[in-house]
Amino acid sequence: MNRRHLLQLLIAGIALPSPLYASAKERITNIRAWHDQEKMRLVLDLSGPLPYRTFELDSPKRLILDLDNALLNASLDDLQLDGSVITSIRTGIQAQGTRMVLDLAGTVEATSFILPPGDGRGHRLVVDLIAKSAMPPLNAPPAQVKDVRQRDIVVVIDAGHGGKDPGAVGAKGEKEKVVALAIARQLAQKINNQKGFKAQLVRNTDMFIPLRKRVEIARKHNADMFISIHADAAPRKSASGASVFALSENGATSTTASWMAKRENSADLIGARDVLSLKDKDPVLAGVILDMSLTSTIATSLDIGKTILGNLGKVAGIHQKRVEQAGFAVLKSPDIPSILVETGFISNANDCRQLTDPRHQKRVAESILTGIKSHFFSNPL
Ligand SMILES: [Zn+2]
């Protein structure tokens, strides 16, 4: 810690405690950190859940963490910050609670969330920082884009099921694998007609491809985005409409989502760790880095999913108004935003009639394209 920081810390620390601070309800009981050169995870153990805010400030770069109604009851002395994206941490008293200032070595992408009690620990505030230089191109600052990015935005389209795996089957034998391929082909054609975009189909014929392989194909093509097309069945024949899914790290957002994921995963099993080459890294660190990468990728996936769902709603009924999350194996690329679109229920008579109609397939593909375009236009690569 340099002298200036020490001084600021002293000024902050010696200030007379405000009545609010004295009556703070929650305690920050411990602070832990893991890092490599580009990524850092800070975990604050809390006595209970509390409101907090983060914001970034420039010159010098720093991330401010305001924890309302909380008293710092932990030492920062043992935190290993050397070689991390954080150069120092300062703390101060605010009327509201505790303020932590993380001085940064450069620009970072920060995400944070409160973890509920689990794994023998109580409430935790998790702050993930990834150095901008370590981010995938998707998150590169626009100023660099012109120099760095000279290739098209690659969308890998996965038509669900295929070959020996027909997927769901409709009342008159309509097969999900056929519907999925038809819509996937339409979408690929429409994407390839767009300047600056390029589509790659995972399968262009009626063939079986294991889920693990589908993820590998996306990686091989350097996908900027992965979209898996389906048309599932439900036990309830009245269930209808399209849904969009993203990966969940901790369980499904609804029973339907969990049920769908189980069905879609049944073709085979895959672990996200299989597709990352972190063998040379410490296993704990590898896990942490994987989690961090997933957290940021899932946020992007949810964003794309929301835009696509909004556009799908203009041409088809919607089953769930929000993007659902579950443990879909095919969405487990840690660094490629991935979504799964259930275009409708093949088990529903009305949906099935539409899904097998080439005009409707075209409309669905068009609406997905509009969603993809509007996402990448507002989040340029
Ligand atoms: Zn399916």
Automatic annotation (TrEMBL):
Residues in the signal sequence: 1-24
E.C. number: 3.5.1.28
Annotated compartments: Periplasm
Classification via InterPro entries: AMIN_dom, MurNAc-LAA_cat, N-acetylmuramoyl_amidase_3
GO biological process: cell wall organization; peptidoglycan catabolic process
Keyword Cell membrane part of the UniProt annotation: no
Protein name: N-acetylmuramoyl-L-alanine amidase AmiC
Organism name: Pseudomonas nabeulensis
